[in-house]
Here is the input.
Amino acid sequence: MNVLKRVLAACLFAIAPAAAVAEDLPQLRAAMLASGTVNWEISTIKTHELDRKNGFELKVQDYADNGATRVAFEGGEADTMVADWIWVANQRAAGKDYVFIPYSRAVGGLVVKEDSGIEALPDLAGKKIGIAGGPLDKSWLILRAYAKQQHGMDLATETEQVFGAPPLIFKSAFSDETAGTINFWHFLAKMKAKGMREVISVADAAAALKLDPDTPLLGYVLKGEYVAAHPDIVKGLHGASRAAKDLLRGDDAVWDDLRDQMNAGDDAEFIALRDGYRAGIPSGKPIDEAAADRFLRLMADLGGAELVGKATSLPNGLFLRLE
Here is the structure.
């Protein structure tokens, strides 16, 4: 009996510190777009406890739109959110010490109906292009620059643009209201799964413009003061994100757990979304800041201060170095 008691006591002694550590993990508060594809990574992190394995607990608050996530982040209700680094550069040039950890390089392109007869951008002259977002959408700006360089064509004046939310642009493409479509990558993946054809990808256009298509556009944004005060949590976020990406890149079974939240209409859409996500996973190599600077200068030239604010060149310290 005494032996049994000693064994039980030893077990309790061994378990207690682990439980205490689990309860005492520091929290990272994340403001996330409820419908964003970043939630596939977030769900993978939580399902596989990659946050706890990297020394923190990820607490996620969902919001209906990107504007609300920014309000939560800037108001101190959240420690991180996801945004594109052009916005971070804008804020940083305005004096805010925001930094960026790459999350995804997934970008869109321009698609048309298979039987449209449109083979290149000049074939869109005089026709309507549906564009998700607005006139400052980065994909639209890059394709405008590409059309000018490759074809001497001003897409803005030689086509008619229809701007709208991604679902509306998606529907317009299939109802023949528009001849070409520029949409977010996951809508384009579903459109291609339904038979539409890509005329030019933003990645190919960026390469032709001597930009680096491997530069991740989206990432986790944090405040510099938070990074300085909680370096281990920030490293943990980076580690959990990379571990989730490794699972999503190499394990098909992980995607089965995500299928309900992917809104895929059939197997073809599911596979297109899975493969599109995988294609957008950053390499993990250090950011080519010279290439990023060229990208920002192009955005400044095409989008002006309304897009980049005072950031006419790459602000120092924007991309957080963790390795």
Summary: The CA atoms of residues 33 and 63 lie 5 Å apart. The chain has two domains: 27-105+215-308, 109-209.
